[in-house]
Amino acid sequence: MGKRTVSVRGIEFSSKTSLERHCRGIIKNYNAGDMMSPDDSMFFLSLILERHERPEEKIITGLEEELVGIRLRHADGYSFYGEAPTNVNHLFVIYACGREVDFSWKKCCSGFKKEHVATSAMRRAVADQVWSYKRLRFATGHGSVTSDAGGSPLCWGDARVDHYPVTFAAIRDRFLSKEGIALCGIATASDPRCGVAMADVALRDRWASFHDAHKTLRLVSAKENETSWREEKAIR
Question: Is 43 within a domain?
Fold first, then answer.
């Protein structure tokens, strides 16, 4: 079997190491706090879409039109991460609204654990259900939508859909148990439009139906959602 290549934005690389070397070659042309050129920004945005386990958390649904580009860390990035200046493993997706979302470009190059990739594919399979819930809440909120967790006002860009009190992980694991499948046994397929998808269409459809029947959703702020993620990981 020949050596497996990887590709980003239609560019073929002989290995993950070769892809990482290409990324480092781009990054070394910038100083901390610099915005990347439109072409370099597009490369790293493609890296997120094609190789990140959860691209929708970095290129946020509904804010695509506000994307400005990629920044080489915040000006205070060193203290933010507590890293030496030479260890530049994080970049930031910049939005016109002022939001900045960090991501590990190096992890995108090396790859994520199979279980994480499978979970990302399962999330994508039910993304339309989550998206529909958010749209419904704003459509029926008559201009006043508040967080279900803290009661604070929410704008569209800051609002996140959270699985609560039944976590996404709990629904996922119940489905896998019902199907007699381990999480690492979920076959995935790469999709340049948005990371990975479940390869087995029939299994994907059964999962979507199961999720739709058992989901419990709420609308929260981005900060509240991050706290919820930490709680979910602790439960797992």
Answer: yes
Summarised one tens digit per residue, pLDDT across range 144-173 is 899 999 999 999 888 999 999 999 999 999
Alpha-carbon gap, residue 129 to 124, rounded angstroms: 10
Q: Pick the closest to residue 128 from 175, 184, 82, 197 (CA basis).
A: 197
User: Which residues have a Cβ under 8 Å from the Cβ of 229 and sit 6 or more positions away?
Assistant: none
Q: Which amino acid is at 60?
A: I
How many Cβ atoms are within 10 Å of 126's Cβ, its own excluded? 21
- CATH of residue 88: 3.10.450.40
| Residue 145 structural domain | 114-235
Residue 156's SS3 state is: coil
| Domain assignment present for 158 | yes
The CA-atom distances, in angstroms, between 36 and each of 94, 136, 149, 156 are: 10, 36, 37, 27
**Pick from 91, 110, 129: which residue ends a domain?**
110
At 132, list the tokens: 């529909």
Is the pLDDT at 15 greater than 80? The verdict is yes
